């Protein structure tokens, strides 16, 4: 899992795979988005950024309010969905 956290492209692929799995088991976009928000909160509180992209996301997350953070989570889902 360490490569997943240190390489942004690997992280995006990992996230894309998880989003696809969630869709395959029938989770709604809203449920997936809520999970992405919870994961973002966990990462913000427990994981130090390992690269420039993660640092930028953390800085955005830290200055955002709850709604803005939910938007960041939805945008990350959209990013990985379009990058596969």
TrEMBL record:
It comes from the Bacteria. It comes from Paenibacillus abyssi. InterPro entries: DUF3243, Uncharacterised_YmfJ, YmfJ/YflH_sf. This is DUF3243 domain-containing protein. Gene3D superfamilies: Protein of unknown function DUF3243.
